[in-house]
Amino acid sequence: MQTQNDTVIQFSGLKPGVYTYNYTLDGSFFERFENEELSEGNVVFEVSMERGERMLLFGFAFHGTIKTTCDRCLGEMEVPVKGEEQLCVKFSDTETSDDENVAILPESAFQIDLAQWMYEYVAIAMPIQKVHPEGECDPEMLKYLSDGDAGEEENTTGETDPRWDALKQLKG
């Protein structure tokens, strides 16, 4: 089970060099962030940290699946996610950064929690539209969707709505 400290790296005392960390993020990790669309999954992260004198350079490589809701039928589905990201961490008591790939830690910092970055990287890797492959959506729900066109009643009498007629006169 993941705990808050699982994603914390204590870098004080480490000599300059490259260090590798492996994480498996499961439902207990994602539940901490209270996002219904991203509350359960299994994502494996390999994190490399290059420790320099005045900065840390992180490389994140991840892959896995996230359980979410289909945008079409509202059924549960698994979405594959994968990606690679970079994060540069600088030390400064006065400097700030607007760059999303640069973080600033106080000079007195001795550890860093990577949880927020990992969560955001997974969230960004999710597709915008999450839909089951063709033929896998809930047929019961699709029946309602196909009946949803009934809201636009077909005009079989040939009559037009007088409100539209008034608007058409403005156009001409």
Task: Describe this entry's structure for a reader.
It is built from four helices and seven strands, in the order ββαβββββααα. The chain starts with 7 loop residues before the first strand and ends with a helix. A hairpin with a 6-residue loop joins strand 4 (55-69) and strand 5 (76-91). A five-stranded mixed sheet has the order 2-3-4-5-6. With 172 residues, the chain is α+β, with helices and mostly antiparallel strands.
Task: Describe how the helices and strands are arranged.
Elements: E1 8-10, E2 17-25, H1 27-31, E3 40-51, E4 55-69, E5 76-91, E6 102-105, E7 111-113, H2 115-125, H3 139-147, H4 162-171
Parallel strand pairs: 5-6
Antiparallel strand pairs: 1-7, 2-3, 3-4, 4-5
Extended strand count: 7
Portion in beta strands? 35-45%
Oligomer: single chain
Main beta sheet strand tally, sense and closure: 5 strands, mixed
Number of discrete helical segments: 4
Return the string of H and E elements. Answer: EEHEEEEEHHH
Q: Average pLDDT, to the nearest integer?
A: 86
Primary descriptors:
172 residues; alpha+beta; five-stranded mixed β-sheet; two-stranded antiparallel sheet; 4 helices
Can I get a quick summary?
The protein has 172 residues and is an alpha+beta fold.
